[in-house]
Amino acid sequence: MALNLILMGLPGAGKGTQAEFIVDKYHMPHISTGDMFRAAISNGTPLGLKAKSFTDKGNLVPDEVTNGIVKQRLAQKDTEPGFLLDGYPRTLDQADALADMTEQLHKPLSAVINIDVDPKILTKRLTARFICKNCGATYNKLYHMPKVDGTCDVCGHHEFYQRDDDKPEAVQNRLKVNVKMNTPLISYYKDRDLLFNVNGDQDIDKVWQDVDKILSSL
């Protein structure tokens, strides 16, 4: 049976890593909104061109266009063994639209996996990131320091910086926006018995074991 999944989690929760593990084991396409938009725009599809007219002006793409692009993507043949949606839906209206399209395509959702980490922990994780000024190599004060203190492993330079959006105030704001967006969706999928919360504040391999256990049981 096909596994049709949504992956949720706040920035820094480790969604990207878990998505790689899921795709690798269960052989399904990882469908992120950004990738879908880029593909639709570069292929010059009517919906892609419509989306481009909004993104070019720095505006949000309206739901009807986003939903149309998602539906076209889910209708493609490579989603028959299942799919992993990431970054969609973002609103309750989009969740309703997704429910309609999965029903029409006979590809009902199997589960929504939410990688759950306390925002305070995520603030620590995200603000710990720093970058080599010369080559852009990324480090983290919590779990990935340069081998030699103050020296980049990749290019040997000694100057580092922190991106503006990794500074505490920006990180807290980003998390607040995402919590506000995710909370109604978590309730929505919980009410439909599709939600599985996974503790993301564990070792990466332990998080994967928990995710894999859920998927194997489906």
From TrEMBL:
Under the heading PROSITE patterns, the entry gives:
ADENYLATE_KINASE
Enzymatic reactions: AMP + ATP = 2 ADP
List GO molecular-function terms, semicolon-separated. Answer: AMP kinase activity; ATP binding; zinc ion binding
Q: What is its EC number?
A: 2.7.4.3
Which residues take part in binding AMP?
Answer: 33, 38, 59-61, 87-90, 94, 163, 174
Give the metabolic or biological pathway.
Answer: Purine metabolism; AMP biosynthesis via salvage pathway; AMP from ADP: step 1/1
| Listed GO biological process terms | AMP salvage
Please list where the region (NMP) is annotated.
Answer: 32-61
- Any signal peptide, and if so, which residues? none
Q: Does the keyword Cytoplasm apply?
A: yes
Stored InterPro entries = Adenylat/UMP-CMP_kin, Adenylat_kinase_CS, Adenylate_kinase_lid-dom, P-loop_NTPase
Q: Where does ATP bind?
A: 12-17, 129, 138-139, 202
Keyword Secreted (UniProt)? no
Give the protein family. Answer: Belongs to the adenylate kinase family.
Q: What is the role of the protein in this entry?
A: Catalyzes the reversible transfer of the terminal phosphate group between ATP and AMP. Plays an important role in cellular energy homeostasis and in adenine nucleotide metabolism.
Name-wise, this protein is Adenylate kinase
Gene symbol of the encoding locus:
adk
